[in-house]
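Before the break, one more example. Copy the sequence into your notebook; we will annotate it together after we see the structure.
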Amino acid sequence: MSPQRRADGSLRHLITLEGVTRAEVLGLLDAAQRYVRKLGETPPSNRSLAGITIANLFTEPSTRTRVSFDLAGRRLGAEVVNIEVQLSSRAKGETMIDTVHTLESIHFDVFVIRDAEPGVVAHVAANVGPHVSVLSAGEAHLSHPTQGLLDALTVRQYKGDFAPLRIAIVGDVRHSRVARSAFEVFTTLGVRELRLVAPRGLMPDPGEFPGCTRADDIEAGIAGMDVVMMLRIQKERMTEAAIPDGGEYYARFGLTPERLRLARPDAIVMHPQPMNRGVEIDSAVADGPQSVIRAQVTNGVAVRMAVLQHVTRRGGGA
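Here is what the structure looks like once it is written out:
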């Protein structure tokens, strides 16, 4: 039995999308879609998580993920507490599991954790009470499951059926938890092709991402693609790609309007943010008609509402 699951097979935690079935992914996407509203409309809310208390424990900076988990819980009627772990007792030497056990003792039910150290989220999940659920909000370079789900929801909204799609993931794939969760979800959903596009120094090892095609040239990499998913490049990673600075990276790998024309005419452009404009993506593309980046942010709240309801087994309408 997967450590993410209860004895009856249901998902209790969400640490990774590996092992989550196609039916479960589609069920979560369907549930999330019911919570999607156009900008300007009143956001959906209900009381399905009334009595549930959620702790957001982030040891890394976050805007979109933390805020959307906060809103997701509150819109479902839960009590939500955001804890700056850097300012808590962990800064005095307390371990994450001790912090969690302290919060468990005052009746917290869900822990949403982002941590730069691999294995922390799974360790917490293995050491909490049977009534508690643990959700990954991003783990090291390994996984970001709710990001993978919101990316899948966005693609489905704009492209429909996954089977014929060709998707390119472009940038620092080697160090990207976003790329790994995208690989897991799009492989599970059965897309036609998943292509990794990266400078050689930022391409993952050959044994990773099985079944994906690879390209170390952006023009060839995005040609004919239905979806172009850009990744953030960190300055400290440029030396690994033998690229001296952001200007050189943009010249070689930045997504410009001219390069985007090599993809299919109706291709969509995605980015998990934060964006480095003029480094991995041109502003004309980020703000252009093919960009669905803002829709990804909107979908993040809806997906996290669906996940919270699912793991706590609290049903509720939109």
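Strands lie at 53-58, 79-84, 110-115, 133-139, 166-170, 193-197, 213-215, 227-230, 268-270. The longest strand covers residues 133-139. Try to locate both features in your own notes.
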